[in-house]
């Protein structure tokens, strides 16, 4: 379900800023440890950060299926938010591939009569892509400039720890 132009769109982004203390930046400012420098998130629960810059093309091809399966295994009937920074937002069931599609939205307010609502990829290829369960208990946060994936929540961390090496990720902290 597309959330654009709904009160839920604003509410979920407000929660991203309030709960995760999201600080977007256009620069690469990776530090070796979360307490030594400015970071894009402040996550109150347990989390891990993975560097993804050394992934092969083959590993990138596997990524969507591996991460989708991880979301399914820890969803327990919950829906997830798929958020593309300053673009479209969706609420979806990770088991339903039909809800994870990009599509044309007719809207006369836009030049050309509408816009394309892109369902974000799990690989942050130029923008911040976030996947967060509806209760904000588990999340997968992609940072494009730092080439990092931030994962929080016990259930999702457990699933990601089973696959991150297969994807060529390196755990940073």
Textual characterization of the structure:
- The chain is α+β, with helices and mostly antiparallel strands and 173 residues long.
- It is 25% helix and 23% strand.
- It has 3 helices and 9 strands, in the order αβαβββββββαβ.
- It has helices at residues 7-20, 57-75, 154-163; strands at 47-51, 80-84, 89-92, 103-106, 114-117, 129-133, 139-143, 148-152, 170-171.
- The strands form 2 sheets. A 7-stranded antiparallel beta sheet has the order 3-2-6-7-8-1-9, covered by helices on one side.
- The longest helix has 19 residues, at 57-75.
- 29% of the residues are buried.
- Residues 32-36 have low confidence and may be disordered.
What's the quick description here?
The chain is α+β, with helices and mostly antiparallel strands.
Question: In sequence order, what are the helices and strands, one letter per element?
Answer: HEHEEEEEEEHE
Number of strands: 9
* Overall mean pLDDT: 91
Strand arrangement in the largest pleated sheet: 3-2-6-7-8-1-9
Q: Level of helix content?
A: 10-25%
Number of helices: 3
**Terminal CA distance:** 34 Å
Radius of gyration: 16 Å
Query: Structural class, please?
Result: alpha+beta
Low-confidence stretches: 32-36
Strand content: 15-25%
- What overall geometry do the principal axes of the alpha carbons give? globular
Biggest sheet character: 7 strands, antiparallel
Helix/strand layout:
Layout: H1 7-20, E1 47-51, H2 57-75, E2 80-84, E3 89-92, E4 103-106, E5 114-117, E6 129-133, E7 139-143, E8 148-152, H3 154-163, E9 170-171
Antiparallel strand pairs: 1-8, 1-9, 2-3, 2-6, 4-5, 6-7, 7-8
Helix pairs in contact: 2-3
């Amino acid at each position: 379900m597309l959330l654009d132009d709904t009160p839920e769109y604003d509410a979920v982004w407000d929660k991203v800023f309030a709960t995760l203390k999201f600080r977007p930046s256009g620069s690469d400012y990776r530090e070796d440890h979360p307490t030594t420098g400015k970071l894009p998130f402040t996550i109150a629960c347990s989390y891990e950060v993975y560097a993804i810059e050394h992934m092969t093309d083959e590993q990138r091809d596997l990524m969507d299926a591996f991460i989708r399966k991880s979301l399914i295994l820890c969803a327990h009937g919950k829906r997830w938010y798929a958020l593309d920074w300053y673009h479209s937002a969706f609420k979806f069931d990770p088991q339903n591939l039909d809800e994870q599609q990009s599509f044309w939205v007719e809207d006369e307010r836009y030049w050309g009569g509408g816009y394309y609502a892109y369902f974000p990829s799990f690989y942050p290829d130029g923008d911040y892509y976030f996947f967060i369960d509806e209760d904000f208990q588990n999340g997968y946060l992609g940072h494009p400039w730092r080439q990092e994936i931030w994962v929080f929540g016990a259930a999702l961390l457990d699933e990601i720890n089973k696959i991150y090496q297969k994807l060529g990720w390196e755990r940073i902290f």
